[in-house]
Amino acid sequence: MSDTPKFTVVDRRKYKAEEEESAHKPATESEARPVATGEASGGPRLVMNESKPEAVATGQVTALDEGMGGGLPPAPTTEESREQHAAYEASAQRVEDLLRAQNPGMGPQPAITFEHLVQQFYVSAMIQMGAGTQEGQRPRVDIVGARTTIDLLGVLAEKTRGNLTDAETRTLDSVLFEVRMAFLELTSMISVQAMQPPPPPPPGKR
Description:
The structure is a single chain. The chain is 50% helix and 2% strand. The chain is mainly alpha-helical. The radius of gyration is 22 Å and the shape is extended.
């Protein structure tokens, strides 16, 4: 029996009714509970991918390096895609209407652009490298997750080459340069700390 976990692709269209029903259910207390921000004092604490789905953590899903094989469901038809897009837009509009009802002064939400996508990757990478930690708390560094996010930005830069405006290219190149520099500084600091000898025991203790 192979030790390599199997990758499973699920045809989400089969669960459309269940998802629509669950979308109206209120979140449970455990789902709404914020994630702990880390221990107080001390240097950065290295953690593994905490955002990894349980299926990945338990070995039920592998990385996509196997090309996903022949397990893909059939591609949606043009009509299915059109209906899904229309339903999505209607649902998003309902959410915006609810937000406006609770916040009368809120204006229309801006359209999502390529810059928003790049910014999302940037914020994720910086948080994974410990940015935004409150004063007095110990930074939690997900160095593996940060590298994955940075590599995804690299893939984005490679796959969109020649298809971006000058402003989009400058934004992506600047963000990629900044997060890579932050990664280099962080890994250098971690390496220095790892090579330092452990502190001696307090006097009077052996």
